[in-house]
Write a structure and sequence with these properties.
Layout (H helix, E strand, L loop, with lengths): L3 E7 L4 H9 L6 E8 L5 H8 L4 E3 L9 H15 L3 E4 L8 H6 L4 E5 L11 H7 L4 E8 L9 E8 L6 H24 L6 E3 L1
Helix pairs in contact: 1-6, 5-6
The structure holds 5-O-phosphono-beta-D-ribofuranosylamine (GRF).
């Protein structure tokens, strides 16, 4: 059985990447083929190497905001790895429409809010500030508009009295680690029916 090839882009510790990689075993239709970061010091690269997954890093800083030049370099290890699916997992660089169009319909992202609410940053603080009763995370297809593509899964939880952005982020992260693997397994099987947790 040939498995679907999955490249995962990270910027930091890579806890979502680890939950994806550790889920791709047994009868899972996919396997990780590359872990790619915009920071060579990202803790997630070490965790990927410990799992025997090829890694690469392309630092965005020398490009001084020239996104096209940065992305041209970012494409090199991706073109070598030839992924069927690309997962953004805590990847904190905004990609151009041109880059995204190369992976149209096969690039996923996890975002820590119940999209379409709270696109962008500081999602937990904004949900608390707004007095929301519930919050959560979403996995969506990546399109040219930030945090905007078709939703493939969501996990919802209650905001508790006394929650801070940090306590809420920690509880959402637990659900991110359940939601993203569930969505990837379904997506790699060619099924885009949204996963709704719990
Ligand atoms: C996660 O909350 C993710 O939703 C957000 O960045 C955080 C990264 O976590 N985009 P990790 O690097 O996967 O641990």
């Amino acid at each position: 059985m040939s498995h679907k090839r999955v490249a995962i882009l990270i910027s930091g510790g890579g806890s979502n990447m680890v939950s994806l990689v550790d889920s791709m075993v047994g009868d899972h239709p996919a396997r990780a083929c590359l872990i790619l970061s915009n920071d060579a010091e990202a803790g997630g690269l070490k965790r990927a190497a410990e799992r025997g997954i090829p890694t690469a890093a392309v630092d965005h800083r020398p490009f001084k905001g020239d996104r096209a030049a940065f992305e041209a370099e970012l494409l090199r290890p991706l073109e070598q790895a030839q992924p069927d699916i690309v997962c953004l997992a805590g990847f904190m660089r905004v990609l151009t429409g041109g880059f995204v169009s190369r992976f149209q319909g096969r690039m996923l992202n996890i975002h820590p809010s119940l999209l379409p609410k709270y696109k962008g940053l500081n999602t937990h603080a904004r949900a608390i500030e707004a007095g929301d009763a519930t919050h959560g995370c979403s996995v969506h297809e990546v399109t040219a508009a930030l945090d905007d593509g078709p939703i493939l899964g969501q996990a919802q939880l209650k905001i508790e009295a006394g929650d801070t952005a940090d306590t809420l982020a920690a509880r959402v992260l637990v659900w991110e680690h359940k939601l993203y693997p569930a969505v990837l397994r379904r997506f790699a099987n060619g099924d885009k029916t949204p996963v709704l947790l719990p």
